[in-house]
Design goal:
The chain has 175 residues and is of the alpha+beta class. The chain has helices spanning 12-27, 60-64, 67-72, 108-123, 125-141, 146-170, and strands at residues 31-37, 51-57, 75-77, 86-91, 98-104. Strands 1-2-5-4-3 form a 5-stranded mixed β-sheet, sandwiched between helices. A hairpin with an 8-residue loop joins strand 3 (75-77) and strand 4. The longest helix has 25 residues, at 146-170. The chain starts with 11 loop residues before the first helix and ends in a 5-residue tail after the last helix.
């Protein structure tokens, strides 16, 4: 898979909204909330052009029961996929267009860390710019090595997440 990082695209929020509506239909009353997360949710941030979506559900078993409906929308349903308490789905094969990260509503830690990073980057332009520049540089350095790209971001992302969570809690966003 070729690592591609592109400038922010103003069409990404609409792409999220369209897919979120389809997800709402699949999850029905099991859905508590749905969020656009990841780099495509941050105006001005360069990103891999993959829409990340975080549905919050009452019970993961209810999401699991909809595996066939998600597959009918073109998703691979990959279960926890390395992160306990999550259901991970991806769409588009080698040319991925969407990723879904489903969490149960009582998993506040994982939900909040995703929302904290998104909201922090939306309100801290220098960190947003630094993160975008890092991703562009790593994509150029590791165009055919997604693991190298991810490893190159790891320390920055971990530090960013810690700053974002502290900011999120200090500003009363955390539950």
């Amino acid at each position: 898979m070729y690592v591609t990082v592109v400038p922010y695209d103003s069409r990404w929020p609409e792409a999220y909204a369209q897919e979120a509506e389809a997800i709402r239909q699949v999850l029905g009353d099991a859905l508590v909330a749905i969020h656009h997360i990841g780099s495509t949710s941050v105006p001005g941030l360069s990103a891999k052009p993959i829409i990340d979506i975080l549905p919050v559900v009452t019970d993961l078993a209810r999401a699991d029961a909809q595996q066939g409906a998600f597959e009918a929308l073109g998703y691979e349903y990959l279960g926890e996929f390395g992160l306990p308490g999550r259901r991970y789905l991806r769409k588009g094969g080698d040319h991925r267009t969407h990723q879904i990260h489903i969490f149960q509503q009582d998993n506040r830690h994982d939900i909040q860390r995703h929302l904290a990073v998104r909201d922090y980057l939306r309100t801290h332009p220098q960190d947003c710019q630094d993160y975008g520049a890092l991703k562009v540089a790593l994509a150029a350095q590791y165009p055919l090595d997604i693991e190298g790209y991810c490893d190159g971001k790891d320390a920055f992302v971990k530090a960013l997440e810690q700053r974002a969570l502290a900011w999120y809690q200090a500003n009363g966003f955390a539950e």
